[in-house]
């Protein structure tokens, strides 16, 4: 359906039927704060009863209302096809001294790349370059390609948010909704059919990642840091359609970070994660080492390192078991 | 000189966004700040070496005040040899919309202000070319997406940009849009995108007493039920 189709519909079917077919139309009339209309007629006819003074005050004509509704329905019912991408390419620019990075890095769906380096070295900058699909026009002069090509200028704007999902330590929930209401709302905004099973799956995934479990009727604002992070990750995996996920330093306890990254990768996301955590750094297929603003090296995780990571994980689990025991008043004996 | 009108509710981050925009643009940017009674923004622009003029509408309707003074602002910008002139106004009554046809118009809103806020803001958002969302860095991705959707409900044609007023992330994209703004030499004979509120009553001219006997001119009454 395009705007013209909606236009035709608006002119031919009774308002009640239009509303029934497109419940989102309710929002349009609420936005406009229009007086109640005769629903048995098509909108343009029903509008004939509206006071001219009302129209005048709202600075709108009858024709414009019909036009705007058509374009509103066009925008709101546009289901964004889940955009899948085959390859993300980072073409090196320059470091903080202007020395060339001399690197081209391809990242495929389902793979995880970690980014390591001292604070202030430029890890977040690299993530920002990917987020804005840099075209040699950021301080690093890097270029980011999607499926081997630069994204056209105008698309860079409209793609924002649809291609890249971001997650960081200082993000919180602010909406006054329960976990389930929240997931429903997000799914609705993504024009995804609110499929109960997907929402449940997402909720259960979040719970499996969180150190402490939570109910679906808990308010999102009442979740702990770990629980929030777990829900954000599960949401990224199940509801957000963005094929690229950028994670900037989620180092706190209370969420199984390794499992979280694994779930994202399994959902065929491209995951980049800036971290100081050895477990996360080694859990990736490759790690980018940043020095002085530039990509210094890209290191493939070796079998030996994977072994070491497994050992660290054992220690990590021991620690969290101990934490759990101490919390519940047990002795560590 | 390119002109950009920036509007948004108080404390939504307009000044921070404009300052970040100034940094990300190559050319010289100046600001005309339209305010009501007080403004604390001049110091911030001064500190950043951004030329600024502040106009207080005082007892006049801020929107009418804007229209009566924006042309003068353009002349000031031209005299100052600016590459970019930005007008900043706080949409105080949510009915204002200092947006002009053919002039790049930006609405700044704060995504902590509630998910339905974009639908409540009215013409200054509805008629904007670009909606800049601030403070997105501290809410979840999901909420950013829901917020974008809510903006789209109110204005399906606008570009939506998330700008972090503190780190400047996203300002770069806004800069790209600013570069595409039309070059203007005058505003004479251009048109507002939306009518300004009508106001010509006794209270416009200084009346302070309450009572039917004092009400004169154009007015409107609520029809209270029983
Ligand atoms: N290649 C580069 N050229 C110029 N400036 C850079 C470069 N890389 C990083 N920077 C700047 O260095 C600062 C610190 O980088 P940041 O990404 O915040 O570091 P980190 O996340 O590693 O702590 C930022 O202001 C960033 O824009
Ligand atoms: Mg950082």
Can you tell me about this structure?
The complex is a heterodimer of chains A (333) and B (226). Chain A is of the alpha/beta class and 333 residues long. Chain A contains 14 helices and nine strands. Chain A has helices spanning 3-12, 15-21, 25-32, 43-46, 52-57, 62-77, 123-131, 153-159, 179-189, 196-209, 225-238, 257-266, 278-283, 303-327, and strands at 88-91, 104-107, 112-116, 143-146, 164-168, 244-248, 270-274, 286-291, 294-300. Chain A has three domains: 3-76, no CATH class; 108-134 and 150-301, P-loop containing nucleotide triphosphate hydrolases (Rossmann fold, 3-Layer(aba) Sandwich), CATH 3.40.50.300; 302-333. Chain A has a six-stranded mixed β-sheet, sandwiched between helices. The mean pLDDT of chain A is 89. By secondary structure, chain B is α/β, with parallel strands linked by helices. Chain B has one domain: Rossmann fold. A seven-stranded parallel β-sheet of chain B has the order 3-2-4-1-5-6-7, sandwiched between helices. In chain B, strand 6, helix 6 (141-154) and strand 7 form a beta-alpha-beta unit. The mean pLDDT of chain B is 87. At the A-B interface, helix 3, helix 6, helix 8, strand 5 and helix 9 of A face helix 6, strand 7 and helix 7 of B. Magnesium ion binds at residues 123-124, 248 of chain A.
How is the topology of this model organized?
The complex is a heterodimer of chains A (333) and B (226).
Chain A: H1 3-12, H2 15-21, H3 25-32, H4 43-46, H5 52-57, H6 62-77, E1 88-91, E2 104-107, E3 112-116, H7 123-131, E4 143-146, H8 153-159, E5 164-168, H9 179-189, H10 196-209, H11 225-238, E6 244-248, H12 257-266, E7 270-274, H13 278-283, E8 286-291, E9 294-300, H14 303-327
Parallel strand pairs in A: 3-7, 3-8, 5-6, 6-7
Antiparallel strand pairs in A: 1-2, 1-4, 8-9
Chain B: E1 2-8, H1 14-24, E2 29-35, H2 41-47, E3 52-56, H3 62-79, E4 84-90, E5 104-110, H4 117-121, H5 123-126, E6 130-134, H6 141-154, E7 159-163, H7 171-179
Parallel strand pairs in B: 1-4, 1-5, 2-3, 2-4, 5-6, 6-7
Helix pairs in contact in B: 1-7
The structure holds adenosine-5'-diphosphate (ADP) and magnesium ion.
């Amino acid at each position: 359906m395009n705007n013209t189709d909606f236009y035709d519909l608006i002119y031919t079917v009774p308002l009640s039927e239009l509303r029934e077919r497109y419940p989102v139309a309710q929002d349009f009339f609420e936005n406009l704060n229009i007086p109640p209309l005769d629903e048995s007629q098509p909108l343009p006819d029903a509008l004939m009863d509206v006071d001219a003074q009302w129209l005048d005050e709202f600075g709108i004509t009858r024709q414009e209302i019909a036009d705007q509704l058509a374009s509103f329905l066009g925008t709101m019912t546009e289901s964004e096809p889940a955009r899948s991408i085959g390859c993300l390419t980072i073409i090196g620019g320059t470091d903080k001294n202007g020395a060339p990075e001399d690197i081209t890095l391809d990242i495929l769906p389902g793979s995880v790349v970690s980014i390591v380096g001292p604070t202030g070295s430029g890890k977040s900058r690299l993530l920002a370059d990917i987020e804005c699909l840099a075209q040699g026009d950021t301080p690093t002069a890097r270029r980011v390609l999607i499926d081997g090509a630069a994204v056209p200028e105008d698309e860079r704007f409209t793609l924002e948010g649809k291609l890249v999902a971001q997650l960081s330590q200082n993000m919180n929930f602010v909406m006054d909704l329960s976990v389930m209401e929240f997931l429903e709302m997000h799914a609705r905004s993504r024009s995804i059919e609110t499929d109960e099973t997907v929402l449940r799956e997402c909720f259960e995934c979040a719970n499996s990642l969180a150190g402490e479990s939570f109910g679906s009727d808990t308010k999102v604002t009442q979740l702990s840091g770990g629980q929030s992070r777990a829900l954000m990750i599960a949401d990224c995996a199940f509801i957000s359609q963005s094929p690229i996920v950028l994670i900037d330093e989620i180092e706190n306890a209370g969420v199984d970070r390794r499992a979280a990254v694994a779930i994202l990768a399994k959902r065929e996301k491209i995951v980049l994660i800036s971290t100081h955590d050895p477990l996360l750094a080694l859990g990736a297929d490759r790690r980018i080492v940043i020095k002085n603003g530039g990509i210094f090296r890209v290191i493939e995780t070796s079998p030996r390192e994977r072994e070491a990571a497994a050992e660290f994980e054992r220690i990590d689990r021991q620690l969290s078991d101990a934490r759990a025991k101490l919390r519940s008043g047990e002795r560590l004996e | 000189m390119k002109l950009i009108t920036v509007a948004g509710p108080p404390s939504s981050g307009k000044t921070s966004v404009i300052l970040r925009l100034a940094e990300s643009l190559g050319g010289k940017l100046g600001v005309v700040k339209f305010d009501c009674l007080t403004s604390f923004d001049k110091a911030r622009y001064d500190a950043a070496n951004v030329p600024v003029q502040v106009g207080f509408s005082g007892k006049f309707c801020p929107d009418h005040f804007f229209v009566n003074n924006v042309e003068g602002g353009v002349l000031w910008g031209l005299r100052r040899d600016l590459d970019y002139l930005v007008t900043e106004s706080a949409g105080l009554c949510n009915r204002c919309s200092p947006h002009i046809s053919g002039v790049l118009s930006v609405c700044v809103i704060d995504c902590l202000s509630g998910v339905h806020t974009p639908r409540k803001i009215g013409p200054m958002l509805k008629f904007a070319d670009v909606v800049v969302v601030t403070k997105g860095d501290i809410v979840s991705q999901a909420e950013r997406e829901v917020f974008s959707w809510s903006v789209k409900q109110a204005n399906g044609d606008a570009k939506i940009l998330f700008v972090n007023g503190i780190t400047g992330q996203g300002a770069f994209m806004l800069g790209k849009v600013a570069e595409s703004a039309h070059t203007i030499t005058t505003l004479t004979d251009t048109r507002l995108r939306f009518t300004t509120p009508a106001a010509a009553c006794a209270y416009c001219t200084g009346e302070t007493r309450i009572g039917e006997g004092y009400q004169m001119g154009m007015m409107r009454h609520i029809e209270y039920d029983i």
